[in-house]
Amino acid sequence: MIEQILFLIVFFLAFSARWNWWRTKQKGIAVLMYHNIGKVPHKDNKSLWVSQTKFEKQINFLIKNGYTFLGFSDLGKKTYPEKSVLITFDDGYKNNLSALEFLISKKIKANMFLVYNAIGKKNYWDENSPRKNAEEKLDLQTLKKLQQTNFMEFGAHTMDHKNLTEIKPEEVKYQIAESKIKLEKTFNTTIQAFAYPYGAGAFTENIKKEVEKTGFNFNFSVKQNLWDFKNWNKYKSIPRIFVRGDDFMLDFKLKITRGKSRL
Ligand SMILES: [Zn+2]
Q1: Ligand 1 mean position, distance from CA 91 (Å)
Q2: Coil, helix or strand at residue 256
Q3: What is the DSSP string of 86-112?
Q4: Stretches in the chain below the pLDDT threshold 70
Q5: Helix 52-64 and helix 97-105: axis angle, to 10°?
Q6: Are 142 and 97 in contact (CB under 8 A)?
Q7: Among residues 168, 239, 240, which one has the least CA distance to residue 207?
C-alpha cells in the first residue's frame, strides 16, 4: 500500500515537472516560433524540427479553439481578441514551404524573419555545426509569390545571421539597419519587426536601442512567454513561444496558455 502511494506521489511530481499544468494562465498574444518543418535529415538539434503532421495538428487546434491569427502588419493596436496568435518562422528555410502553403490554404497569416544575404542560399553561418550549409533557404521568386497571396509577411533577422553580441558596434549597426533597407526595397513594403539571431542573451540593451533607433517597432527575442502587449512598449523585447519538435500536444496547449510547459 505504502509503495503504491509513494509510486503515485513520485509519478505525480515527475509529471508536474515535465508538464507544468500548475503554472498560472497568462494573458497576451502567443507568438509561436518555428524553425524547420519536416523530419530531421541529419545530425541536428532535433528540437528545431517540427514535423508537418505535428504542425498541421497544432494549427488545426488553434482554428478549432477560435484563435485569431495575426500578421506583423496587424501589430501595434491597443486591443486584440483574447485568443490571438502570431506564427513566426525564423531564417527562411525552404523546408517551410509546405507549412506556409498549408497556412495560406486556410487563409492564415504566416510571418517570416529573413536573413537578407541568405535568401536563396544555405545557412552558411552555422560554423562548426553539422547544420552548416545543410539547409537551403527559400529563394526570392518563391518569397515574392508567397507575398502576393497576402498571407505572408516578413520581418528582419539581420544580413548574415551574426551573433550581435560578438561583433563591433559598426557591424551591429550594419547588420540591423541594412537588413531593414534591403528587405523594404526588395519586397516594397515596410518592415517593422526584427528578431535577434541566436538564443536568449544574444542582444544587449545597446543592441536593442540600435534596433529601435533603426525604426523597427517590434523586436522579438526567444525569451519564453506570452506577449503581454498591454504592459508593453517598443523599448521592450517581445517574448515568443519556442515550439519544439519533441513537444506533445499537451506541451503546445500549456505553452499557448501559460508561456511554458516544462521546468
Ligand atoms: Zn535564426
Answers
A1: 5
A2: helix
A3: EEEEEETBGGGHHHHHHHHHTT--EEE
A4: 44, 127-133, 200
A5: 20
A6: yes
A7: 168
Q: What pLDDT shows up at residue 200? A: 67
C-alpha 13 to ligand 1 mean position (Å): 35
Q: How far is the CA of 154 from the centre of ligand 1 (A)?
A: 14
Q: Tally Cβ neighbours within 10 Å of residue 190.
A: 13
Give bridge partners of residue 34 from the DSSP assignment: 89
By the 8 A CB rule, do 217 and 192 touch? yes
Centre of ligand 1 to C-alpha 115, Å, is 8
State in Å: Cα 160 to ligand 1 middle.
Answer: 10
CA distance 251 to 71: 24
Contact (Cβ atoms closer than 8 angstroms) between residue 164 and residue 207: yes
Q: From the CA of 209, how far away is ligand 1's center (Å)?
A: 20
For residue 32, the cross-strand partners are 87, 241
> Do residues 104 and 80 make contact, with C-beta atoms less than 8 angstroms apart?
no
Distance between CA 60 and CA 103 in Å, rounded?
10
Fold of 2-258: TIM Barrel (3.20.20)
